[in-house]
Write a structure and sequence with these properties.
There is one protein chain. The protein is 50% helix and 19% strand. Helix 3 runs antiparallel to helix 4, helix 12 crosses helix 14 and helix 14 packs antiparallel against helix 16. The longest helix has 33 residues. The chain has a five-stranded antiparallel sheet, with helices on both faces. Strands 7-9-10-12-11 form a five-stranded mixed sheet. Strands 6-8 form a two-stranded antiparallel ribbon. The relative contact order is 0.06. With 432 residues, it is of the alpha+beta class. The N terminus is likely disordered.
């Protein structure tokens, strides 16, 4: 069986060889026939010459095919092979492989998302415009030594990135070695956020908690001293102490929520959620506060689902802060209107707008630009009396930033205020 297969594989190319050599053999046969007819060459010698020509025409075809296949194999650059591309594509961090001139050989999907301008066979420094990246890349190419660079990426949100450039020895076409540059990007944002969160929490807590702690300490000293046997004073002081303790608990809760949102601000939510039930759930939960303040909550929402890419818990906190602020500071208007509609943003893209309007005293124009600052209050006394921490609108702004949205504030004194949360509309394919 093996002999049969070997013989068949040996004879199988002969028909093709005969077809390709037909003209050569025909011309040789005619020439030799003429020479034999003119008695210039004997028949035996003519047959011998014809056999030599036939062998020369037929046998080298196999050698030529083998040589051609070897040339095709050698013409493929080892660095451009599929195995190298698969290794770069499988790296978890953004990775780009460059040649000695700085041109892109391979890049993975994470690198394409980080720097959409990167293109294969084009110089990387034209796509990565950060001065720190260009400097490190030029030094690595010139010295063929590892380089590191840390830089701040501002688009679409602030992200701290570390670039590591590692020279990688690779084989060449002729059996030698060359140096390519492997660029990997590491996201340092979570570490930086943790450091900032720790520093901000200590600074804010020490500043804002000092007042309620001092009040609690003073009332405790009074209850242990002069008011020890005074039931009326004890009852009054215990009520104030409860209020201060509640304020401290809410302040710490808001600080922790704000820190958590800032920690993940660079990671955009990718879960599709329906805004309608979220807004209704918040409004139902604040009905008790609305009855206490004698305010009616008017809801104008569509019947169909309105989908966005968002974090449900953060959106609950966002709408709770907006509607609760309207109930507290716009209570004199007697009603709060919550509505939703689609509109075009300033860049022409479609967005979802949720508007919370009160009909209270409004806000003076000079306060509007600073309302989302931490601990900024229009009226400090009134804010603290209402149980506010000064962090609600700051938390709203950071949640919207994480959702790639924006906050619009409009107000006319004595004519109420409108807070509008704008969200980019989710694409139809993503929603499906």
């Amino acid at each position: 069986m093996a002999l049969h297969e070997s013989s068949s594989s040996f004879f199988s190319p002969w028909p093709d060889r005969l077809r390709h050599s037909a003209i050569v053999l025909l011309a040789a046969g005619l020439a030799l026939s003429v020479l034999v007819a003119l008695d210039e060459l004997s028949l035996i010698r003519a047959l011998a010459v014809f056999l030599c020509i036939a062998a020369a025409a037929l046998v080298p075809w196999r050698l030529h095919d083998v040589a051609a296949s070897r040339e095709d194999t050698r013409s493929v650059n080892p660095v451009e092979a599929g195995a190298v591309a698969a290794l770069v594509a499988g790296m978890p961090d953004p990775a780009v492989l460059l040649d000695r001139a700085g041109r892109v050989i391979h890049l993975n999907a994470a690198a394409a998302q980080l720097a959409p301008a990167l293109r294969k066979n084009e110089l990387a420094q034209f796509a990565l415009r950060s001065p720190e990246i260009i400097t490190a890349l030029r030094e690595a190419i010139a010295t063929t030594e590892p380089r590191r660079a840390t830089y701040l990426d501002h688009v679409p949100v602030d992200r701290w990135m570390e670039l590591v450039i590692t020279p990688v020895p690779v084989p060449t076409l002729f059996g030698g070695t060359d140096k390519c540059m492997l660029m990997t990007f590491h996201d340092l944002t979570p570490l930086r956020r943790v450091e900032e969160m720790r520093a901000d929490f200590v600074a804010n807590a020490s500043h804002e908690l000092r007042t309620p702690l001092a009040a609690l300490s003073g009332f405790i000293d009074t209850l242990q001293g002069p008011a020890r046997d005074d039931p009326r004073a004890r009852e009054r002081f215990l009520g104030i102490m409860h209020t201060q303790a509640t304020r401290m608990a809410r302040l710490i809760d808001d600080l922790l929520s704000l820190s958590r949102v800032e920690l993940s601000a660079h990671v955009r939510p990718d879960t599709c959620v329906d805004l309608i039930p979220i807004i209704r759930q918040v409004a139902d939960g604040l009905e008790a506060l609305a009855r206490e303040r004698q305010v009616v909550i008017e809801i104008e929402l569509p019947e169909t689902a309105v989908m966005i890419a968002g974090d449900r818990e953060e959106l609950l906190r966002l709408f709770e802060n907006l509607i609760e602020n309207a109930l507290k500071y716009g209570a004199s208007g007697g009603r709060v209107n919550v509505s939703l509609r689609e509109a075009a943003s300033g860049e022409g893209a479609s967005e979802i707008r949720v508007m919370v309007r009160d009909f209270g005293p409004g806000i003076a124009p000079e306060h509007l630009p600073r309302l989302t600052e931490r601990f900024y209050r229009v009226d400090v006394g009134d804010s603290r009396a209402q149980g506010g921490t000064g962090l609600g609108l700051s938390l709203v702004k950071h949640i919207l930033n994480r959702h790639r949205g924006r906050l619009l504030i409009e107000s006319v004194p004595k004519n109420g205020a409108t807070f509008t949360a704008c969200f980019p509309q989710v694409k139809t394919g993503a929603a499906a």
